[in-house]
Amino acid sequence: MQLAAIVLFMIVLPIVSIAVDVAYGTALAVALGKWFVFWGVGWRLATAAVRQLMQPAFTAEHIFEIRDPAATALVLEIGFGNLALGIPSIASLWFPAWVPALALAGAIFYGLAGLQHVRNKATTRAEIAAMASDLGIAAVLIVYLVWLAAG
Question: How much is the pTM?
Fold first, then answer.
């Protein structure tokens, strides 16, 4: 399920949305930021947050491999942070001026999370998928921000 969500929110939905937007005349840089923030930051983090808030033990055990029940308190806080970044990223579709700031926040969040997975020497399939997708979305968001700055 996690891998399917990653493929959907990080690859399929943003690329299809970008292609449609560009076909209707939207500049590629604008479409890139708009849809990767909406799908990759917004929906991916919001759906992860819902899972973390409803089933914190799942994330603790299956993602971080921590079997201590006390870890659920930390997972809940991670869920709050994911929701706090996810909801405005979804709303950015209606408030496009927010996209650059949310892209920056997303690039920092995903870049640091991805580096932490590298540092922890990710070994499980879930950790490796999270590491690759975190670093991938960080790279896309950085490309968008550099492209925007060069604009």
Answer: 0.92
